[in-house]
């Protein structure tokens, strides 16, 4: 178990060897928004990702539109998207200390996935995004809470959530191989 110092007490994070194959535990979902606050490195990692994830955001933006979720192709939403992606990566690294995820490898998988679905990648992502909050309610809630704390708009929250979902989706082939 990993312990992080809170304002006046210890916050305990349970190790989850089955994450992300299964959702976060309720206990982890409760403490992670505090542990992964603004000083956790998520923002700097998201800034780094901005140089590489524009093609993924293009697919995510189309998927949001297919899902009838309000979205603009704006800089603020793109930044929220990369923060969502970085948040999921941070969650995975905290609750599952044994790394099964590599961002560079994920980029290769993303390219392969986009080629596999071709012009239907956005449709497939839209289809999967409808169920993702129900399949991963605790991860979804943590991602939303982190965005709400930043004062993100509903459009930015949608971009943030789909960014986290894409980070999850990119791990699926790695989970199947494990």
Q: What proportion of the residues is helical, as a percent range? A: 55-70%
Main structural class: mainly alpha
Biggest beta-sheet profile: 2 strands, antiparallel
Mean pLDDT: 81
Spell out the helices and strands N to C: EEHHHHHHHH
Roughly how many Å apart are the termini? Answer: 22 Å
Q: Round the Cα radius of gyration to an integer and report it.
A: 15 Å
Oligomeric state of the chains in view:
single chain
Low-pLDDT segments: 1-8
Total count of domains: 1
* Global morphology: globular
SS summary, helix count = 8
How many strands appear in the DSSP assignment?
A: 2
Q: How are the strands of the largest sheet arranged?
A: 1-2
What is the strand content? under 5%
Topology:
Blueprint: E1 2-5, E2 10-13, H1 26-35, H2 42-49, H3 54-66, H4 75-95, H5 103-117, H6 121-135, H7 137-149, H8 154-177
Antiparallel strand pairs: 1-2
Helix pairs in contact: 1-7, 2-4, 3-6, 3-8, 4-7, 4-8, 5-8, 6-7, 7-8
Structure overview:
- The chain is mostly helical.
- The protein has one domain.
- The chain has eight helices and two strands.
- A two-stranded antiparallel ribbon has the order 1-2.
- A hairpin with a 4-residue loop joins β1 (2-5) and β2.
- It is globular.
- Mean pLDDT is 81; it is low at 1-8.
């Amino acid at each position: 178990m990993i312990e992080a110092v809170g304002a006046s007490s210890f916050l305990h994070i349970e190790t989850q060897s089955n994450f992300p194959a299964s959702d976060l535990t309720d206990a982890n979902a409760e403490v992670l928004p505090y542990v992964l606050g603004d000083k956790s490195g998520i923002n700097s990692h998201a800034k780094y990702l901005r140089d590489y994830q524009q093609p993924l955001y293009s697919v995510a933006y189309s998927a949001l539109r297919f899902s009838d979720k309000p979205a603009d192709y704006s800089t603020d939403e793109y930044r929220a998207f990369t923060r969502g992606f970085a948040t999921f990566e941070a969650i995975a690294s905290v609750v599952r200390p044994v790394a099964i995820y590599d961002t560079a490898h994920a980029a290769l998988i993303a390219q392969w996935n986009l080629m596999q679905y071709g012009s239907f990648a956005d449709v497939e992502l839209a289809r999967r995004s409808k169920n993702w909050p129900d399949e991963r309610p605790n991860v979804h809630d943590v991602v939303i809470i982190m965005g709400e704390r930043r004062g993100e708009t509903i459009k930015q929250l949608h971009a943030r959530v789909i960014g986290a979902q894409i980070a999850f989706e990119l791990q699926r082939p790695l989970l199947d191989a494990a």
